[in-house]
Amino acid sequence: MPFSSFLSSLLLCLLGILLLHGAAVTGGCFSMEREALLDFKAGVRDTRNRLSSWTGHHCCTWKGVTCDTTTGHVVMLDLRNTNFTDDWALRGEGMNSSLLALSHLKHLDLSFNNFSGIRIPEFISSFKKLRYLNLSSTKFMGGIPARLGNLSSLYVLDLSSALGFACPVDNLDWLSDLTSLKHLDLSGLKLTDVPDWFSSVNMLPSLQVLSMSSVGLNTITASVAHVNFTSSLTVLDLSYNNFNSTLPKWLGNMTSLTHLYLHYSGFYGVIPDAIGDLVRLKELHMPGNQLTGYLSGWLEQMTNLITLDLSYNLFNGSMPSSSVGKFSNLTELYLRDNSLGGVISEVHFENLTRLQVLDLHDNSITISIGQSWIPPFQLRYVDLTKCQLGPQFPEWLQFQTQIEELYLADCKIAGTMPAWFGNISSSTITDLDLSNNQIGGKLPSSLKFTKLERLHLESNRFEGPLPTMLPSTLDTLYLSNNSFIGQLPIWPHVRFVTISDNMLDGGLSSSICQWTYLEYLDLSKNKLLGEIPFCLGKSLQNLQFLDLGNNCLSGEIPYTIDFLSRLWYLQLKNNSFSGELPLSLKNCTELQFLDLAQNNFVGSITLWMGDNLQQLIVLRLRSNMFSGIVPWQLARFEQLQILDLANNNFTGSIPHNIDFNPKISTMDDPRLYDRWGEDACE
Ligand SMILES: *[C@@H]1O[C@H](CO)[C@@H](O)[C@H](O)[C@H]1NC(C)=O
Ligand SMILES: *[C@@H]1O[C@H](CO)[C@@H](O)[C@H](O)[C@H]1NC(C)=O
Ligand SMILES: *[C@@H]1O[C@H](CO)[C@@H](O)[C@H](O)[C@H]1NC(C)=O
Ligand SMILES: *[C@@H]1O[C@H](CO)[C@@H](O)[C@H](O)[C@H]1NC(C)=O
Ligand SMILES: *[C@@H]1O[C@H](CO)[C@@H](O)[C@H](O)[C@H]1NC(C)=O
Ligand SMILES: *[C@@H]1O[C@H](CO)[C@@H](O)[C@H](O)[C@H]1NC(C)=O
Ligand SMILES: *[C@@H]1O[C@H](CO)[C@@H](O)[C@H](O)[C@H]1NC(C)=O
Ligand SMILES: *[C@@H]1O[C@H](CO)[C@@H](O)[C@H](O)[C@H]1NC(C)=O
Ligand SMILES: *[C@@H]1O[C@H](CO)[C@@H](O)[C@H](O)[C@H]1NC(C)=O
Ligand SMILES: *[C@@H]1O[C@H](CO)[C@@H](O)[C@H](O)[C@H]1NC(C)=O
Ligand SMILES: *[C@@H]1O[C@H](CO)[C@@H](O)[C@H](O)[C@H]1NC(C)=O
Ligand SMILES: *[C@@H]1O[C@H](CO)[C@@H](O)[C@H](O)[C@H]1NC(C)=O
């Protein structure tokens, strides 16, 4: 056969194949399937025009549609809303069974769209070839159709939050027919009423991933005859349930597990040694239960661990180097809020070259590490709050260049701040807390951390002037209870500042008017002199909390105070303020706490108090020279719980309708109560 005729017969043959399907195929798409897709499109609301490519004949090229390259049938419909916001969701009010024509469908993903008006359509169970079904966060109403059990080819079933919040599921019997299932996610469904949930999932011999997080489970069988998926299950997530049970021993039979998530699930008691058989675990998360016992006897063999989170439990004993210390892949270690004790030394860390997170917050652990130790790791997150770390400053920190958060509060560190301190992870650190130690010395005049957002140095022995240059990222600065002296610098970016209980002197100069982002300022218990600058009101319009109590300030309250329209806390007690209060004070309508006690204020209170300060909870005017009558409007301040007018020059009588029923015991803001308590007995 000459080559040309060979070619033409090949063409003919190809044409024949095309013709065979030809009746239905136009432009690589079966017309029946195209019609079905168009019907589907017509039935959904698509505010963001995500289906705008769904026009013309070539349905296999439409966005989200995939056809089999050989047969031309639509095999995959991926309409996942990757923007997660409701705005981008398709709304399925009018979705009907037209999709059934896609009889070759293997993969259907409708996740994060909004079907809140309709039930999960029964017709989904007719896609005989379906292997992947993702209805995550679709918020259908009603229950789960039992006929889903007909999808016997299903590998992956993700029904996480597929139903609206209040829709309970009454049984999971239909699961037992999904014998091919490898991945099952039921998280966020309401399974409280499902009887014997474990028997239903135990029918799935090939299961690899099981997620049942936040489903309201409150029972877990203590003993089962046989766990079907012991050799297949790698991921088990039962977190955020309320089992109120000890850990079942059979968990230890799932020896293929690499990921076990049991956050806040109501488990209590001693960890069974059988858990120690889960030697392949890489991720073990059990925070927020009431588990007790030692970190030995079960932990030693889990040498593959990458993350170990046992926080918020009741573990005791020490942290043995024979377990945690040899997990050379360990990256994140969370043991915070337990009852651990003992001593941790360099030996514990010698093989932890990959450690990035070390959280031992609030245990009774002593960390005893030589001053010349060079750590094998670079930490990212360090919380050693309340560990015994001092008295010497931990020198090994100077080799850590990647730390983002460093919490060393209450660590019994004493002595002077080392010179290298200003360089600790200076280009990465955002949070630094050294509060409640006995650290002394001066701060450098310029803090060079380029990303620092929060700095806690309160309750130490710092001295000398305040730093004049702060990183522009720093918005929270706690320096109370130290021995700082001198003036307030210009800190243009700060929002929350406390420098209470120091030895600041000099005036409350107008430099403070440049702290224009300021919301919270506590300068109480210093030796500040002079007047409140006139510019304060107009400049600090975000101010909500101002405490200048127990200083030596004088002069009048500037009338510009009315610009502080968000102010809810104003504490000026025990200064030498004088004059009448400005009428504009009545504009500060958010005020809940006003304490002007122990000053030299004069004049009538009727005018500024007016009717406006309806939010007042605490009003203290004690020991001034206010005069005139006590305004009858006070009786209308329904929130008022503490009223102290003693030791003034008021005339007349207390308005008889004031409700003198102190409600102190019902006050729910301890800050208010403390401050009131300070000199309640004077
Ligand atoms: C599905 O809805 C479309 C448009 O809303 C309609 O044209 C079609 O007849 C419906 N199909 C079925 C099977 O109900
Ligand atoms: C998600 O939203 C962004 C911005 O609103 C838009 O640019 C993007 O195309 C959206 N992606 C999808 C898949 O809709
Ligand atoms: C289902 O879709 C969501 C996103 O829409 C995704 O996060 C999730 O991993 C998917 N489930 C499975 C099992 O693939
Ligand atoms: C979903 O759609 C319904 C009405 O169709 C609407 O009330 C609801 O706010 C939407 N969003 C979510 C997240 O349910
Ligand atoms: C589909 O499921 C229903 C309910 O579980 C059942 O009655 C029916 O026989 C099943 N159909 C097929 C073809 O398996
Ligand atoms: C294990 O699964 C098989 C079928 O999947 C089932 O027949 C059997 O009852 C299951 N065993 C248990 C103990 O549930
Ligand atoms: C767990 O494993 C042990 C030892 O292999 C076996 O004797 C026991 O029957 C298993 N238990 C379950 C519930 O599968
Ligand atoms: C847990 O179970 C005990 C009895 O075993 C019961 O007294 C307790 O109230 C339960 N706690 C919760 C939170 O259900
Ligand atoms: C650590 O992880 C690597 C892969 O990143 C693996 O090859 C190695 O076996 C693991 N080491 C241990 C002790 O588990
Ligand atoms: C660290 O690894 C070395 C070498 O594998 C080993 O000899 C030593 O015991 C390990 N240290 C700890 C604390 O496990
Ligand atoms: C204070 O209130 C008065 C009227 O009650 C108003 O004229 C004045 O503009 C207010 N001041 C501010 C700064 O809003
Ligand atoms: C107190 O009031 C009386 C009469 O109202 C007045 O004579 C006296 O000067 C006032 N004392 C002070 C300290 O303001």
Summarize the structure.
It contains seven helices and 42 strands. It has 682 residues and is mainly beta.
Architecture per CATH nomenclature, i.e. the level-2 architecture of the domain at 486-681:
Alpha-Beta Horseshoe
Q: Note the beta-strand portion.
A: 15-25%
Helix content: under 10%
What is the CATH topology classification name of the domain at 486-681? Answer: Leucine-rich repeat, LRR (right-handed beta-alpha superhelix)
End-to-end gap: 118 Å
User: How many helices does DSSP assign?
Assistant: 7
Number of strands: 42
Oligomer: single chain
Radius of gyration: 34 Å
CATH superfamily of the domain at 486-681: Ribonuclease Inhibitor
Mean pLDDT: 88
Largest sheet: 25 strands, mixed
Overall SS class: mainly beta
The hetero molecules present are:
2-acetamido-2-deoxy-beta-D-glucopyranose
Which spans of ≥5 residues are poorly predicted at pLDDT below 50? 6-24, 661-682
What sort of overall outline do the alpha carbons produce when their principal axes are compared? globular
Question: What descriptors fit this protein?
Answer:
Leucine-rich repeat, LRR (right-handed beta-alpha superhelix), 682 residues, disordered C terminus, 42 strands, 7 helices, single chain, binds 2-acetamido-2-deoxy-beta-D-glucopyranose, mainly beta, 9% helix
Task: Give a description of the structure.
With 682 residues, the chain is mostly beta strands. The chain has a domain at 486-681: Alpha-Beta Horseshoe (Leucine-rich repeat, LRR (right-handed beta-alpha superhelix)), CATH 3.80.10. 9% of the residues lie in helices and 20% in strands. It has 7 helices and 42 strands. The strands form 5 sheets. It has a 25-stranded mixed sheet, with no helix packed on it. Strands 32-34-36-38-40-42 form a 6-stranded parallel sheet. Residues 6-24 and 661-682 have low confidence and may be disordered. Bound molecules: 2-acetamido-2-deoxy-beta-D-glucopyranose (12 copies). The site of one 2-acetamido-2-deoxy-beta-D-glucopyranose (NAG) has 4 residues, from loops. Residues 1-22 form the signal peptide. Its main location: membrane. It is found in: Cell membrane. It holds the Pfam family LRR_1.
